[in-house]
Structures are given as structure tokens and as C-alpha cells.
Amino acid sequence: RSCSFTGFSTVQSRKLAKSLSRSSVRSRMSLKPPKAYNSLQKGAPLWDPKPLQVKKIFEALKKGLNEYLEAHQAELDYLSGRHKDTKRNSRLAFYYDLDKQIRSVERYIRKLEFHISKVEELYEAYCIQCRLRDGATNMKHAFSLCPSTKASRESLVELYKNFQECTEDMCFIEGALEVHLGEFHVKMKGLVGFARLCPGDQYEVFVRLGRQKWRLKGKIETDDSQTWDEEEKIFIPNLHEKFEIKVTELRGLATILVGVVTCDSINFFTTKPQAIIVDITELGTIKLQLEVLW
């Protein structure tokens, strides 16, 4: 059994190597890593790809893009109906203004359709590299169980090289996919704490998404309203990072940690603004309310 597998290694592993080489993302797709992702260039340190997380983000992203497409298609149908009625009995200026709106919506729909096709193309390429990487891993494991020969050692070296190339291509595609995730507009809606929030209390909220940070300070006024030094921040979505929110209470020169929570961004890829209320304390006595618009 081991002998037949060793004989298989010298021919089949080279065929696999050639197949993996031909399937390289850089040879199949005319993708260039954007300037924001210099770390994705050839030879740079790699992170560990996370296919399950990428799949979740891809599905949420595609669903959100299709929601936008359906909404604009409905708007186009409505405008087209008005356009026909207006052509028969209305002023010429209003007719041309409506015609401009229709053309604008049509252009936006074409952009959305291209966006969706690009995301699908990237994810399809990602899945191919993921399967090839898994195949190289399985073959490495199989060869490691065989008696060590010159042929098996050469095959292991070749498989390791193919594994590294697939890993690099997956990291490259993850970075290219992040460019298509859009923006999150996060609005501060305030703290909710009932008896825990008293006039004069001051708080600091720190929101982090990967390397992106947002630090803002707020105060509880005498009429129980809240004032914050910032109200909105734009975050660029990240495939692997979650929102991390930390709230501290400011008492003179001292700071008291109220709580730290994490929040996944998968549910934010939708056309409607998402109201988020997270428990900052374990018992939920203080909550933070945000609004996210994608």
C-alpha cells in the first residue's frame, strides 16, 4: 500500500503542482492589490485565511447588494410608469427632468450589477484556492505517513510550496474582497441607564474596528439629555475584525471601566439603518445605543 503510494508521488504530485500553478489567482485574474493593501504583495507576511468567516461575509454582502438592487429596480419601474403618463399629458420640462432621473437610476443599477458580479468572481476564485489548499494539506498528511524516500521528500517540498502559494492567493483575494465591502456610517445615539445615569456624569466611549478607532466623550445634562463631542464616524468594514466597544466613566482624574463588549458586523450589510443596543454591564444596567447605516 505504501509502495504504490510512493510510486504515485513522483508523477501525480508534479501534475498537482502544475495544476496548482496554472490555477494561481495572479495568472487567471487581472487583479492588482490596491495601495491600501500593500501587505498583500508577493513575499509579504501572510495571515491565516478564514474561509468560514469569508463565506459568512460574502453571503451577507451579496444579500445586501441584492436588496439595494431590488430597491432601485422598484424605483426605476415607478419612474418609468410616471414617464409614460407624463409623455402624454404634462409639461416638457418636467418630462425631461424625469427622464434624467431614470437615466441616473439605470446607471446606478448597472454599477450595482457589476459590483455583484465582481464580488461573485472574487469569491469563486477564493473557493477554488481553498479547495486546492485543502488538497495540498491532505496530500502532505498522506505523504508524511509513508516511508521516507527521496521521491516522497521532493513531493513534500513541492506540496508545501503549493500550499504556501494557495495561502498567499487566498490572502490576496480577501484583501481584494474587502475593497468591495463599502462603508459603515456609525451614529452615536447615547447611553441608556435609567437610574445609573445621573446629571453631571461624564463618560468616554471607545469604538474600535481593526486599526480604526473612534473615541468620544459625553455628559449627562441636568434635563437628562446627553451631549457628545462627536456624533458620527465612518468605518471601513473588515472581513475578520469585530467591533469592540469600551465604555469608561470619567470621575475627575480617575477613570472607571464600565464594560467592554464586541459586536459582529455581519448583520449591518442591509439597506435599512440598523439600531444597535448593546449591554455594557453584565446585568444590562447601562446600555449603549448606536445606529449603523451601510
TrEMBL record:
Protein origin, superkingdom: Eukaryota
Similarity comment: Belongs to the RIPOR family.
Gene of this entry: Ripor3
Domain FAM65 N-terminal: 1-294
Pfam families in the record: PL48
Record-given protein name: RIPR3 protein
